Automatic annotation (TrEMBL), chain A:
<dbReference type="InterPro" id="IPR050861">
    <property type="entry name" value="Dihydroxyacetone_Kinase"/>
</dbReference>
<dbReference type="InterPro" id="IPR012737">
    <property type="entry name" value="DhaK_L_YcgS"/>
</dbReference>
<dbReference type="InterPro" id="IPR036117">
    <property type="entry name" value="DhaL_dom_sf"/>
</dbReference>
<protein>
    <submittedName>
        <fullName>Dihydroxyacetone kinase subunit L</fullName>
    </submittedName>
</protein>
<dbReference type="GO" id="GO:0019563">
    <property type="term" value="P:glycerol catabolic process"/>
</dbReference>
<dbReference type="GO" id="GO:0004371">
    <property type="term" value="F:glycerone kinase activity"/>
</dbReference>
<keyword id="KW-0808">Transferase</keyword>
<keyword id="KW-0418">Kinase</keyword>
<feature type="domain" description="DhaL">
    <location>
        <begin position="4"/>
        <end position="204"/>
    </location>
</feature>
From TrEMBL, chain B:
<dbReference type="InterPro" id="IPR012844">
    <property type="entry name" value="DhaM_N"/>
</dbReference>
<dbReference type="InterPro" id="IPR036662">
    <property type="entry name" value="PTS_EIIA_man-typ_sf"/>
</dbReference>
<dbReference type="GO" id="GO:0047324">
    <property type="term" value="F:phosphoenolpyruvate-glycerone phosphotransferase activity"/>
</dbReference>
<dbReference type="GO" id="GO:0019563">
    <property type="term" value="P:glycerol catabolic process"/>
</dbReference>
<comment type="subunit">
    <text>Homodimer. The dihydroxyacetone kinase complex is composed of a homodimer of DhaM, a homodimer of DhaK and the subunit DhaL.</text>
</comment>
<feature type="domain" description="PTS EIIA type-4">
    <location>
        <begin position="1"/>
        <end position="127"/>
    </location>
</feature>
<comment type="function">
    <text>Component of the dihydroxyacetone kinase complex, which is responsible for the phosphoenolpyruvate (PEP)-dependent phosphorylation of dihydroxyacetone. DhaM serves as the phosphoryl donor. Is phosphorylated by phosphoenolpyruvate in an EI- and HPr-dependent reaction, and a phosphorelay system on histidine residues finally leads to phosphoryl transfer to DhaL and dihydroxyacetone.</text>
</comment>
<dbReference type="InterPro" id="IPR039643">
    <property type="entry name" value="DhaM"/>
</dbReference>
<dbReference type="Pfam" id="PF03610">
    <property type="entry name" value="EIIA-man"/>
</dbReference>
Amino acid sequence: MDTSFFVAWMEEIATAVQAQRDHLTQLDAAIGDADHGSNLDRGFGEVRRALTDSPPRTPGGTLVLAGSTLIRKVGGASGPLYGTAFRQMGKSMGETRDISLAELSAALDAALAGVQKLGAAVEGDKTMVDALAPAVRALAQAVREGAKPEDALSAVAAAAQEGAKATIPLQARKGRASYLGSRSAGHEDPGAASTALILSALRTAGFRTW
Amino acid sequence: MVGIVLISHSARLAAEVAELAAQIGGRDVPIAAAGGTDDGRLGTSITKVSDAITTVDQGDGVVLLMDLGSAVLTARTLLDESPHPRVFLADAPFVEGAISALVTSGAGADVKAVLDAAEEARHIGKL
């Protein structure tokens, strides 16, 4: 997976977030402050602009630039969280120009570690970690089994989507929804839903570039 | 003197708490508000936080107070990404912590004492 793959990933995220903007905002209106869709739409729009203005030379450079842009431009909690996730991914890739599935797996692991260090959330807290952690495990398993890249990315997307849906009955223990206590149960977590979108876009980027 | 930065989702909330603290504790202490996003929405701007630290840093250290959510995450991200050896995050109530920190800084305390004063503010009862 080269730089153009990761640029395609960012473009696919921007497209998916734009299409799902109102859905994400509705999820956030139920248990948060109803800005998740618009914040992410603005953020990934800025990422798209940044990548066009200063085209990166490496996969790692692509993700570091995307992460820095999200940190500066989003304004809500998703900015530092996704920003840190992409920056940690990018840093773990170093200067490598062609990322293997195993390297992608290590990068996603670094993203999860960065998010958990910053937000101190664990699985079951009803956050983005509930979608990200199963996706990280699915990719590690696919690498161990020697899966084909398209199958591995499909497994990542499926695990993230399942993880997001599994947040519905949970009571939030982190983030704005945690102020609602038991009233947060019965709604899908918007951060987990957007993480599932972002990781599903990885598979779409694969189909587009391979 | 130790500088103080107030980080809030709301530009007005941060500015008004800064004003209240200065009115009670004196106007000599460097204090800056970093509230809202760059384009005037509710939220947090890492650029505003970074600029506010520069404004109040006199070389004796800076204590940051945050309201909640993205204010906390943005402040932590800033310090994770670029180490500021004399800058500390206070796990403190926003209003009471700001006043305690400002009064303590005004008395000439060092940065650790100002940080402690902000954090201890949570234990001061009201009733």
